[in-house]
Amino acid sequence: xxxxFLGILVIAxxxxxxxxxxxxxxxxxxxxxxxxxxxxxxxxxLVYYSYQQYVVWQSVEPSKFLLPPYQAIDYFxxxxxxxxxxxYLISLIAAILFLFEAKRLNKKYxxxxxxxxxxxxxxxxxxxxxxxxxxxxxxxxIVFYFLLSTFYFLLRGKEHRLSLYYLWLxxxxxxxxxxxxxxxxxxxxxLKI
Length: 193
Prior knowledge:
Blueprint: H1 2-21, H2 27-59, H3 74-108, H4 116-128, H5 133-156, H6 167-177, H7 179-182, H8 186-191
Helix pairs in contact: 1-2, 1-6, 2-3, 2-4, 3-4, 4-5, 4-6, 5-6
């Protein structure tokens, strides 16, 4: 699944750079559709993985007793729900909360914080990094923005609002690539469902 996530993010990053470069005005709609496509693709894949898990359990002697007719289906549903679906449901909820809260703040402060497509870029990134990757992504975003702002302030000597326009997807790609090292952290294990 990592390659699927990276593929979607790389395509979205390419579209972001290419469409912005050529001045395409309805770019936010494209990222909205990429976000919806990602949700459908990920959850379809999770349903397929659940089916494969059922087939494997059914074919092995001890585990087939955890399935009907020996047990109710709820054990299996809870198992795949916690193992496969929960991390992406949590990251989807985080993405939707980010999307609505960022829209609200942006509207309240007269579109000062985000460009329209940035809302969808942030939501897409939060969703695709999964949970607990979304936690590390958000922390990384805050730290990187702080360092970038500090560097800019020291360089220019004045305060200036910097945009994260090109960093939303790039940082998500970095977090997904770093997953194999992040998994080793105790904090990752603590946050893992």
